[in-house]
Amino acid sequence: MLRDKSLIPLSRQHQHALALCVRIDRARPIPERDVEAWQTEIKRHFQQEIGIHFAAEEKVLFPMARYFPDLISLVEELVVEHDWLRHEFARAEIGKMSAEDLPRFAGKLSQHIRKEERQLFERMQQLLPPQEMAALGASLDNALQGASQSCILPGQATRLRAGND
């Protein structure tokens, strides 16, 4: 199903986070010397976009989804995943992730995003009439105002190199 324009800002941010996940996956095995650079990049993603993204979902999207009984358990799963992911972002911020933690983090973040896109967003588009989707989109736009509008560029150590593709 095509993504409703009201959800496109969240989907665009999902693409940015998925790009980070793909780069982490393709960088494996991650040399110990690069772990700090990856953690710095993960921290930047959270500060500039993902933290604001999570808050917008929790304050705007999830409460709307909870009006539909068949989405309540899914929303509860997503909230638990947000908590786990926040904990991992906090670990990156204080330099507590290891080279082995990074792919696990990327895998969980990727799974979470795909669950939101394939299950929550698809179902919301089916359940909400166009005028309610438009109102949801306006609320999301307002909640996302502080987020970066462009993809965060990788640092030297986290940039994919020829031969790693």
List descriptors.
elongated; 72% helix; single chain; 165 residues; mainly alpha
Explain this structure:
The chain has helices at residues 8-26, 32-65, 69-93, 101-127, 130-143. With 165 residues, it is mostly helical. It has one domain (8-143). Helix 1 packs antiparallel against helix 4 (101-127), helix 2 (32-65) packs antiparallel against helix 3 and helix 2 packs across helix 5. The protein starts with 7 loop residues before the first helix and ends in a 22-residue tail after the last helix.
Tally the helices.
5
The largest sheet is: none
SSE string: HHHHH
Structural class: mainly alpha
Kindly state the mean pLDDT as a whole number? 92
Strand content: under 5%
Determine the N-to-C terminus distance.
Answer: 30 Å
Count up the domains. Answer: 1
Q: Indicate the overall shape.
A: elongated
Question: From the alpha-carbon coordinates, what is the Rg to the nearest angstrom?
Answer: 16 Å
- Number of E-state strands: 0
Q: Which stretches of 5+ consecutive residues score pLDDT under 50?
A: none
Helix content: over 70%
